## 1
Amino acid sequence: MAEAPTLSIRSTWPRPPEALRAAFAEAPTGWVVDAQGRRGALHHGIRALTKATRIVGAALPVWSRGRDNLAPYAALAVVRPGDVLVVATEDYEAASVAGDILLGMARNAGVVGFVTDGVVRDVPGLDAVGIPVFARGVSPNSPQKDGPGTIGLPVTLGGVVVAPGDLVVADGDGVVIVPLAEAGTVAAALEEVRAKEAAMDDAVKAGATQPGWLAARLARPDIRFLD
């Protein structure tokens, strides 16, 4: 019987075109969630650990065994400029999956962000690297480099399935995944969300104390006032 491979690597898949990425360039993650049916955000435990927080890029999914980062390093061999390393560890928190050396090399290769459901190390060094890093936390414990792992195959982390080429949008509020096949539709809906948010901001600036829809909602028969 043949032994299972240490790494399974897929190196080619579609990425979102630049024009599509540009549609999300300045959109807050909350707007992106609203534009795709109030879904897509990773678990809140995956949070920004660096001063830089803004990501808009294409997912390069990686699965790595806990306490190991052979797969994230091997992903550097297939990464393209504009990619986001999305590393699933099955929520492993006892040792880091990346530090400033790995992510410094990733930045040099054109990576624009790093997202993991594991933990990282070297936070001052990560800030110096300059790309946004989202993780569950920090541990100085070091990983091995033995595998197993996968690169360029779908992973699940933070309660969301991430496929290669999906759009990753992140800011200080968290990380949102937009499936590549739906990104055009979401981008169109994002314009409606943008207009709605602008109208609500204008109402607040004008002194509104309630949203315009509230009075009609409270007048419906399923609402009971007790005094």
Note: The domain at 7-192 is CATH 3.50.30.40 (Glucose Oxidase; domain 1).
## 2
Amino acid sequence: MLLAGDVGGTNTRLGLFAPGATRPALIQVRTYRTSAFDGLVPMLTAFLGDTGTGVDQIHGAAFGVAGPVVGQCVDLTNADWWIDGGDVAAALGLRRVSLLNDLTAMARAIPMLLPDERVTLQAGEADPRGAVALIAPGTGLGEAFLVRDGDRLIASPSEGGHADFAPRTPRELALLAYLTGRFGRVDYERVLSGPGLVNIHGFVHTSPCPALAGDAGDQAARISAAALAGSCAGCVDTLALFVSALGAEAGNMALRTVATGGVYLGGGIPPKILPALCQPMFLDAFRAKEPLGDLVARVPVHVIVHPDPALLGAAIAAADDRTASPPASAARSDAKGSDSQRTNGALGI
């Protein structure tokens, strides 16, 4: 079997997969609260016990992790975990453990998606030789891309979600000024994420919002639900600003990577706001890229509706590792003890 994980700052999903002819097949999956464990090893120990799985049954293991992977080591961005892939393998007695950025894992799943696991916003004219871009707003904002190497698409990580927010309109300039007053530097994640939606809501609302009355529930989910229901004009305005900014940054991704193979929207938010993404404001912002408006108008745009593409992508990586040579011990990074090694090491994909 293959052991795969989607390791996030809030929750971690672990799954067992069987290798398949076209893609790994999910056998069972569990979700754990990341903060309930001191690290990945005790969580994996619990998972193997919960599923009655022996280490000798695992022939490949890979984990998508929410943070930049350097030398097969990572500090989780939103959790107090340090993970060393070599240490995890040694502790559990696994032949090899691969770490990859969670957006890289999600990107690896894109070529394997079935037609009903995506919703098309713009059919475009897909170039089978072209690159593919991925933008994924959720708890944070992740970005990645895939480049063509012969018949293969090679996934590459990006921390573009932390690039500077670029306002395009007087309203967005006012939003930037508001967020700068709160946070100092404003990156795209301050706008295009669950917390970003709440930030926009604070900018829009000058009086208490009925959608946020009481303390129960996720604020971003309540704002988007009120917007989609049309029950709060301020929430409608909030979501409209969010969707337009998302369309603009998705178009930026198309330009940065020349993504003639398509742009994909992943993460937890896009499937939940599909009705808003289907409105003209998203594609209007996506296409407003003169002098290259004609180029982006031909780029296919899809929303990923697979329930956990990052977990699937990690399983695909585990399947690839199943037949790979184990890494030499000398190649293992001791990046935890050296800031320069952590900065200059090769990014793990």
Note: The chain has two domains: 2-108+308-344, 160-304.
